[in-house]
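In response to a reviewer's request, we include the raw inputs and outputs for one of the modeled complexes. The three entities were modeled together in a single run.
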Amino acid sequence: MTAPTLTGGTSHAGRARRRQAVLRRTVLSVGTVAMLVPVVALLEYSVRFPLTGAVDLSAWRKIVAGRTTEYQSLAPLWSGLTSSLVMCALTVAIMLGLLLPTMVWVRLRAPRAARTLELVCLLPLSIPAVVLVVGLAPVYRFLAGTPLGSSTVWLSFAYVILVLPFAFRALDAGLRAIDLVTLAEAARTLGGGWSRILLRVVVPNLRPAIVSSSFVTVAVVLGEFTVARLLARENLQTALFQVNLSDSQVAAAMAFVLLTGTTALLVTLELLATRTARTARPRGAEPSRSGVGREPRGDHR
Amino acid sequence: MVTATVPVGRAHTARPAAPARSRAVARLRAGAGLAPFFGYTAVFLLLPTLIVVDGAFRGADGALTLDGLRDAATARTAQVFWTSTWLSAVTAAIGTVVGGVLAYALSTAPVTSVPRKVLTGFSSVLAQFGGVMLAFAFIATLGTNGMVTRLVYEQLGLQVPPDLLSSMTGLVVVYAYFQVPLMIIVFLPALDRLRPQWREATAVMGGTTAQFWRRVAGPILLPQVLGAFLLLFANAFSAFATAAALISQQTVLVPMAIESAIRNENNTGMDSYAQVLALGMVVVVALVMGAHALLLRRAARWTKDAR
Amino acid sequence: MSVHSRWTATALAATMTLALAACGTGAAADTPATSASGGTSKAATATTAADLGGLDALVAAAKAEGQINVIALPDDWANYGAVKAGFQKKYGITVNSILPDASSKEEIAAAEANKGTDQAPDVFDLGTNVALESTAYFAPYKVETWEKIPAENKDASGLWVNDYTGIMSVGYNATKYGEITSLDQLTDEKFRGAVALNGKPAEAGAAFNGFLMTNAAKGGTFDDLQPGLDFFASLAEAGTLNVKDVTAGTVDAGEHGVVMDWSYNQLSTQARLADKGVEWKVFVPEGGEIASFYNQAINKDAPHPAAARLWQEYLFSAEAQNLWLAGGARPVLFDALEADGTLDAAAAGSLPEVSGTPQTPTIEQAEKANAVLAQSWESTVS
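The model returned the following structure tokens for the whole complex.
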């Protein structure tokens, strides 16, 4: 068997690579189309009234005008969106500030707590929101009496719990891929304290994991409905639900905008994140990071 | 300068054993670092859980009671748990397989490619797209006047059954719609860790692609695959808003039974029953997660942290 | 960007986020002067407007509070959209409408979950069953028009009072299906997957009464529910019964073509679909005339007690009662308004034709019926 080469051409490896590229494109195209179908259906619903087949842009015009009926303005939708966006930022901040240092600490100082940490992080998956709220209500009642008040944005505290399973997985995958103990020891040898280790050594190495855990968090917060509804606070999804009750075409249009908008937001953030990563070149004891290709046209398998 | 080739992790055990007091102090300090996280989860996760567990055994007047347990120990409850488990397992399997294939296809694309970023971003969004709007999107697709229903009828002459979405088949399709993207975003990082050097090494030693997958990549990825499957299972098990929008007038799933007990206008004493059901859910998913942990421990033989 | 400026940027972003959040908090808490438990304690214990020094004093106190939290009041339910807008316009008090799709039980649950905060609901609009069980949450209050409300429609101490009722009816897409005059037609093939109740009979008030209507039309009584169960079993067998939740969206999408719901809800569907060129007709099956009043009550721990009481005064004034009438509901003061000559005759004409006298089950009958349904509904329709 000939040794594989990494250059193209008519070699065995080159043909295999081209075959693989065709296969990949086919699979991804089919998958993408399948995933897009319901989204397109939402768009179609927003312009075509199903019972009569009449096509018009009245739903979109209503969004621009800011009201659906004589009595319902779309203001709750925009205030819900604002609340949700603020909660995204807040939840990501709390999650990263709480979970990441703890996971690093466990790996470096308290390895025996690793299993407990994992269990606690996976626990939220087993408790349905409907039920968690029963227990959260007294906590939020208490919070309402503090200077924090009863603003919707403090739902972020509960949302951090909801994203724990997903964020933990993402950060854990990232931590497994780097040699944390050596890095930390090296940093300590060179005179770094705990915060320096964290900020200057761990975070730059974990960038993809941090980014992916943040994305999951944003997606969870923007899609969250049950907790907000049961605690009678207004966020994006509850506002959308309310609009759906009075005008389903407007709700469908908004849902379409949200799906595409959130995707665009996440993609933009990721493009920005990788661009800053490529311009910055952190110095220090950093192992080569193969496996996450930095080559422009990498062939990994 | 220290590089990654230095053997790791055991260096500090070469030091002489520290005296007992400073060991204890070290342990205390180690524990203190865990305090913020565990304090936070104690307030926002463990406390609510305990309240639920307590509520499972309290009646409407607050007295201890086993009424909830008694209401729950019926064939109906078993049926509901079985349906939930079955639905979650099937959709988790579909999600794992289809999502795994798509994730693999994505991982072969360079990380910097825009289509890959767009698909990953889109998957993140779809993985959390649920509830009423998802149900609605499917009504707009496969419902009586749905887009696909019309297309299939006009082009192929086939009639999509009007009650498709309210049936189990319909639910499986709808659940798969958020399970597959979830698998993609959960599994892609694991696939990214498969290094090309391993593939090259296998080829150099005379192995074929099949052997690579069976002997090298397979065992490495297996715990991740199983872990992802269990994550998808738990995700489907706790999901209810979508199913509620599609089959709202029948309670076929556990979270729906819980919500209906809580919402019930005509029999307001159902709260302890709801909390017993919730307890049951916690137990099921805890068992699933325990299996996950066991699997990880067994498979850990094959994978140390990547070097 | 160098490492340092990257971190500075992140720190700035974080600070801005927290500032935004704080602003969000500030903007949301519009009532800085009031404590969490409500405004003046006088308003919190007033049982009539006279306690506060008359209606004008009540209006002043309510305006000082500036807001009212209402719950479970969809805009298209008995014309509540107009009622809320009317109140807001008349007194300049902001109406915060939360959880419009909540069930009566969820209203009480929301009051419990948010007790002592300024997010708790101020007033309730509840089904009879939940109202009678939750009197511990209510504050007694008698509106100015109290004497005009019939005795059987109110609690003697003022804890709750009937506000409006409708007739259970069957609404259908006449453009698609033509005329429907009897329930027996509903097993026909053309209604495949189109017939629905508004909720689950064992749990939701509207669906429960829808079942009773069908049962009565098929010859049953409040104590004999078998004819109703048999009928729904036949619908399930014919494949015409749809168990999805009924919303404006599902009706628009064509998922539901025949809906059993209160007459006032049918009216809003009619108006909405007429706009789009679809005719939605309503009929009450013969022998199946069922009515059930909803109940108004004030939250004992209302964060805006004066506004809550003013809301109640507004609801039982001719203006709001006529708005409900325009929405297809029969307000409790119907007879009194007719006698006074303040009834909106045009709106009164739009109430559906009823041949028999509407029946309402007693509490005992409702409880027993509910127990039967809780047992047998699932098996009947699956």
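As requested, we also summarize the result in words. Residues 1-9, 280-301 of chain A have pLDDT under 50 and may be disordered. Strands of chain A lie at 48-49, 54-55.
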